[in-house]
Amino acid sequence: MTIGARIRLFRQQKGYSQENMADMLGLSSTAYGDIERGKTDLTLSRLEQISIALGASVQELLGDALPQPQTLQPDLLQQLRTQQLELEKADLELEKLRLELAHWKRRAEELALLTMVQTLKTPSMEQRPKIGF
Question: Which CATH number does 3-68 carry?
Answer without folding.
Answer: 1.10.260.40
